[in-house]
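> Could you send the ABC transporter ATP-binding protein prediction when you get a chance?

Sure thing. Input:
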Amino acid sequence: MEQIHLETKNLSFTYPDGTQALKNVNIQIKKGEKIAIMGPNGAGKSTLFSHFNGLTEPTSGHVEIDGEKIVFERDELLKVRQKVGIVFQDPNDQLFAPTVKEDVAFGPMNLGLEYDEVKRRISESLEMVGMSGFEDKTPHHLSGGQQKRVAIAGIVAMRPEIMILDEPTAGLDPEGVDKVLDILNNLNKEGISIVISSHDIEMVNHFADKIYVLYDGQIIASGDKHQIFSDKELLKKAHLKAPVTTEILYKLKEKGFDVDTEKISIDETVEEIIKSKKN
Ligand SMILES: Nc1ncnc2c1ncn2[C@@H]1O[C@H](COP(=O)(O)OP(=O)(O)OP(=O)(O)O)[C@@H](O)[C@H]1O
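Output:
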């Protein structure tokens, strides 16, 4: 049986001002999965993520990591934070040291690792994100895309088993998006489970094995890309747009062509168009 890596059970959270940000959220992330949480602004994605490593304590319900409930005690939380690394949406919330290498060193040093091991992890994780050579630069002098990669390196250096990334490609140019996706895919190949939030349907189309749709604090749908992207009503409700390939196939269908609207990759779409012409 596939191991469940992270699970929320009837997770609910209400902010002190009374905003009910999460309502009975149940999600499961299996070991090695690539998951996307999608939903409109204010749906509760960041609030949900802050529960994944015990930054926020649920109002009711709980989170389990490898079948163990997160316990809100210092030593237990340290263990959880070693397993579950979070990369925030804005690198400015994460990068604060005067140099890139000191920033990446922060996590491993807090784990109490030897100096040589910290050095090894700095160079390994900067190499992994394609930022070797930037060790002595000031993080705030880097471009947005470079800052994002350094923020990822800082988490990678802790060797987490699960990585959570809040909108990892927001604000990046197409090459920056591809670079971050390559990094995430490489980390996943090494066995790390990855959870992202995103509004970028094209990116999610390329990346995720499974999608959860969060709306007004509730999970209103979950499934693979085909199930989610072919549900027009759902996408509309969640303020999402279908991938361009799906839109093209729907338009062809409306015009009487015999096409399968569940095909979503570019290659599959081209095949459908070629086939439909022959029909
Ligand atoms: N500190 C807070 N106090 C009160 N309400 C809050 C607080 N932080 C967030 N909220 C509210 O909780 C709800 C969920 O917010 P959250 O930031 O988790 O959504 P999100 O899906 O991450 O949004 P976005 O896509 O805009 O980043 C929103 O209604 C928001 O206004």
